[in-house]
Amino acid sequence: MWPVVVAEVLAGIVGADVLAAKIFGHLYRNERRPNAIHYLRTEDGWSLALHRHNPPPGAPAKLPVICCHGLSGNHHGFDLIERTSLARTLAAAGHPTFLLDLRGAGESEKSVDGHPPCWKVSDHYRYDAPAAIRCVRELTGAPRVHWVGHSMGGMIAYAFLQTPLAEQIARCVILSSPSTFDQMRPVHHFAPLLRWLPILPVRTLSQSVAPLFERSRLLQTLGGAVGLAPGVATVFAANCQEQTPSSLIADFARFVRDGHYVDDHGRDLVDGMREIRTPTLFMVGEKDALAMGGSVRTAYEAFGSAEKKYVTLGRSQGHQSDYGHMAVLIGRNAHEEVFPEIVKWLERDA
Predict the structure, then answer these.
(1) How many domains does the chain have?
(2) What CA–CA distance (Å, rounded) separates 338 from 230?
(3) Could you read off the pLDDT of 185-205 as tens digits, one per residue?
């Protein structure tokens, strides 16, 4: 009898969690909309969404920018609230700005041909990034694009910039993107549990406790939501997270096990960074518990680019607050201390 009781209790908990997620997801839904949404097809058959933000009429023509989110994320992180919208800041500066939803995220396709969601980081830099860049170049007629990557979005750039297509990116901005994982070694021991969970319900869990993000330091730390303005953590939790296939998490567990970023064949992608020549700005929060400043700095030091810059965001560097993982995008002072640096970097040779 007791197994039945346990099953009923667990079913009740799951049901309550799903219901809470639906309620809070609706209450705190981000209603901001782009000027247009373009859909593209990758070479391996996935439909991806690009959310377009246009410059003001009459603005001088500048290179377009693609903004790419991180693990379990989506486009909302770049346009969550008016005060901290990197998308609208870039567009106002004259850059046609495109927010990419990687496969499985936001408005992009969640699965193909009815198969369970299953992909790896390499699918993002082999298929998603090239397709998005090709689409933006066709839409704008621009010869090259700028790339702004947050977290895994920057890791995609680490790998893509080591391919022959790297010349299609004029300038790159890396926000809180790790390259080494020694500090997270204990995590890979939980990898065997992933075989029982084909999908991690990150979005459901985040939405179900969205109001608690305002007061829970633990949730803020786990979600990378430290250093946000009042009310923003709840909106973040309700909009910026996505269900995540265990195959993608397993890929990160492999990076953690090996201690650094490697491709599907075990090639050290950090070692390969010495061949990169793209001008790149690196920014990371001083209190980023997910990316860890040392890990981002390793990538900065490995890059072979003659033009590169590393910025730590925190009070010790004269900033108004200590930045966490998401604060580089939606922190209370990001519009004053982060966004101007990004705009200035992208316009160095404009």
Answers:
(1) 1
(2) 19
(3) 655 556 666 666 788 899 999
